[in-house]
Amino acid sequence: MHLPQRLVASVCAVLLSASSATAQNTLPAAESSSNSGARRTLLAVFAHPDDEATVSPVLAKYAAEGVTVHLAIATDGRLGVTQHAGIPAGEALARVRSEELTCAAQQLGIQPPIAFGLQDQLKMGEGFGAFQEQLRSLRDNVTRLFTTLKPDVVLTWNASGWTGHPDHRLVGSIVTEVFASQAWEKPAQLYYAAIPTGSLPPGAPVQLATVEPRYLTVRIAASAADYEKAKASWLCHKSQYTPETIEGMHQMIKGSLKGTTYFQPFGVVAKEPSTLFQP
Question: What is the C-alpha to C-alpha distance for residues 237 and 103, in angstroms, rounded to an integer?
Fold first, then answer.
């Protein structure tokens, strides 16, 4: 996720203050195999190893219910340097973060992670050609997963990328581009993980992007067991967080969010459409 440690407390406060809403809807993937007659598949696509933490209770929930849950991560995390880990940027850090991601997936009970192997910042600093090649590879990988996995539901970020990180924004944008490029039989729906507007504490040093609550029409309830799996998976990311930081964040989130994770469906309309642009 690449948030400096000094900003972690701010992120916690944002998540905690979202506790006023109640779980209302569930993702289509929640139907069990016995009810639907076919095994369901959920695909989450994010930018960095550890980004899955934003939805990890939901991933654990559906995996426990028999849904096949895949996690695809676009970049190798080689630039996610932290002071406490002391691992320099580059191949060594990328290897460590790959191991951490595998550990996290195991703790969540989901399928082994799918790594696209792109570089942090998608080689933006190496010129337009290198950057475009990374985007092309990202697009091709997402298309391949849609075609081969045929997920019922895809999770990613909206245009804000949650934290505003360029990698987050670009991954969400490419996933949306591929989803909107044709009428897929599967995936049937795309959802964006989001934070409700109004949940940010006044004067927070970090303003995370938020979404008007009426657009967040899907709200998923996760159990205490799901949150414990999420915590265990988070603890795998030792290069990014100390155990003390994770414990504090976990306890606050678990106690205040009351197990609710918010999603915005692709194409949701909050009000009656205008007559403008009507056929």
Answer: 8
Burial 124-159 (b: 16+ CB within 10 A, else e): eeeeeeebeebbebbeebbbebbeebebbbbbbbbe
Handedness of CA 81, 230, 145, 177 (dihedral sign): negative
Residue 213 has pLDDT above 70, yes or no: yes
For the record, the structure tokens of 143 come out as 């298309």
Residue pLDDT, tens place only, 37-60: 578 999 999 999 999 998 999 999
CB-CB contact of 47 with 75 (8 Å)? yes
Average the pLDDT over 232-252 and give the result: 86
- Read off the pLDDT of residues 123-139 as tens digits, 9 standing for 90 and up: 999 999 999 999 999 99
Does 261 or 22 have the greater pLDDT score?
261
Cβ-Cβ contacts under 8 Å for 130 (sequence gap 6 or more): 123
Coil, helix or strand at residue 194:
strand
Peptide bond into 187 cis (omega under 30): yes
Phi-psi region of 109 (alpha: psi -120 to 50; beta: other; left: phi over 0): left
Residue 122: closest CA among 159, 179, 86, 173: 173
